Amino acid sequence: MVDATAPSENNALLRHAAITGNATTAVVPSASSEALSAYGKFTSIYAPAQSPEWVSSWIDANTPDAVLATLSANGRPVMSVALEVGRDGPFRIARFLGGKHANGNFPATDKNWLAAANAGDIDVLIRSIGKARPDIDLVAFDRLIGDFNGLPNPLLKLPSSPSPNVALAVDLDGGFETVLTRTNGKKKRKRHRSQERKYEVVGGARRTMATTTAEANAMLDAFFAMKEQRFGAMGITDVFADTEVRTFFRKLFVDALARENPSFVLHGLEVGGKYRAVTGSSRAGNRLVCEFGAIADDELAYASPGEYLFFDNISEACDQGFDIYDFSVGDEPYKRQWCDLEIQHADVLIPLTAKGRLYALGLRSLSRAKGAIKNNARMWALIKRLRSGVRGKPVTASVEED
Questions:
Q1: Which domain of life, per UniProt (predicted)?
Q2: I need a labelling partner for 225 at 20 to 30 A (CA). Which of 133, 267, 301, 331 fits?
C-alpha cells in the first residue's frame, strides 16, 4: 500500500520518508537545494537524462519551473522523477528535464523495488503531483526506454503508445571484429584506411577525448557551429541554439571531467588542426549512448569525418566492455550502416485536467501522423527534401538526429 502526501518544498525527500515511517510519496513543487541534494541518493539506477548530474545542470542553466517527485514504499524512497513545467498555448505540461534532448528515459529507481512495482504505485505518484501542482494539465513521460540494464521501466506500468522516432543501436556482443563481420566490415576497414590517407595529405587525423575544460569547450564550440550550419541548411530549428541549452551542455560535460569515470564524454576528430567531427556520449549502464554528433560542412566533408569517428568510437566501446552502442533517436543512413538493433521508445501521457485530456488527444494524433510519415521511406525523404529546399541548399548525409 502506498499513500500520497505533498510536503512543503523545504522537506528533504529522504528525511520525509524516514520521519513518516509509512509508505508514502513526496512531491517538491520547486527544486530547492535541499531537494536537489536528496535527489537520487538512494540506491538507484537511472538513464542519463534523469541522472543527478543532468538534473542539476539543466536546472542551473535554465532555471525552469521544476518538480522533483519521489515515491516511497514502506518508509523508504524507491523512485524519483525530475520534471519541468512549461506552457504550450493555454496548457501547462510537465515533462522530463531537457525537452527534446532527453531520450531513452528511465527514472531514478531502486532496482530492488522494481519486482514489486505496479501501476497503482505509479498512479499514486501522479496523483500526488496533481495535488501539489493543480495547475498542471498533463504529465508527459516522453521517449521511455523499455528496460535499463535488463530491468523494466516502472513508468511503463501505465498505458503507453510508441514514440514516432525509432532509436538505432549496435549489438557489441563478441567484440569489434564480430561487429564488423555483421556490417560489411571488409568494406568499412578499406574505407577507413582510405579516409586516413586523405587526412594525411592535409596534416593527419587525431581522435581525442576531452580531458580538460579547455578541450571540452573547444569541442562544444565546434559542435555548436556545425549544428548551426547544418540545421540552417536543412531548414529546421536548431535545438542547440539557445544560450541556456549551450550553457547546460557545457556544464554537464565540463563538470563530468572531475569524476574518475565520467558519465558524459566528448570525442573529437581533428584534421589539419581543426575539429571536423564531434560526438557527445553518455555512459549508461551496459551501453554507450551517442547523445549528439555533427560534422563540419567544409572541404573535407567528402571524406566523411563523422563516419571515421564512429568507426573508432564503436571500436573503443567494444574495448571498454559495453554491450550496446546506442545511436539514440533518429533513423538515418549513416546509422543503418552499423545498426542491427531497433529500439522502440514509448510515450506515456497522463491528463490531470479536462484541458489535459484534450491536449493528450491532440498529441496522440500528432504522434501517429509523425510515425506514419517516418515509416514511409518515400514520404519522409520528400519531407526532408522540401524542408531543406526552403533554405535553397541541398544537404548530404551527416551526423544528425531527427
A1: Bacteria
A2: 331
pLDDT digit string (tens) for 139-148? 999 999 999 9
Q: What is the pLDDT of residues 31-52, one digit of tens each?
A: 777 888 888 777 789 999 999 9
Over the stretch 63-78, which tens digit does the pLDDT of each residue have? Answer: 999 999 999 888 888 9
Cell of 307: 563516419
> Which tens digits make up the pLDDT trace of 332-353?
899 999 999 999 999 999 999 9
Grid coordinates belonging to 288: 554507450
- C-alpha distances in angstroms, 268 versus 189, 209, 211, 264, 290? 20, 6, 11, 14, 13
Q: What share of the chain is helix, strand, coil (3-state, %, to 5)?
A: 40, 25, 30
Strand bridging mode 91-96 / 324-329: unpaired
Other Cβ atoms less than 10 A from the Cβ of 362: the count is 11
pLDDT at 395 over 60: no
203: nearest Cα among 271, 301, 300:
271
Query: Cα separation of 393 and 12, whole Å?
Result: 53
Separation of alpha carbons 186 and 194, rounded Å: 12
DSSP 8-class letter at 240: T
Name the residue type at position 385. R
Quote the Cα angle for 309-305-312, to 5°: 15
Burial profile 250-277: b = 16 or more Cβ within 10 angstroms, e = fewer: bbbbbbbbeeeebbbbbbbbbbbeebbb
Q: What is the DSSP string of 86-122?
A: EEETTEEEEEETTGGG--SB--EE-TTTGGG--HHHH
Residues in the chain: 402
Predicted TM-score (pTM) of the model is 0.86
* Cβ-count burial 381-396 (b if 16+ within 10 Å, e if not): eeeeeeebeeeeeebe
The three-state secondary structure class of 228 is: helix
Report the C-alpha gap between 145 and 341 in whole angstroms. 13
In one-letter notation, the amino acid at residue 177 is: E
296-315 pLDDT tens trace: 999 999 999 999 999 999 99
User: Could you tell me whether strands 205-209 and 264-271 are parallel, antiparallel, or unpaired per DSSP bridges?
Assistant: antiparallel
**44 vs 287, more confident:** 287
The dihedrals phi and psi of 108, each to the nearest 5 degrees, come to -65, 120
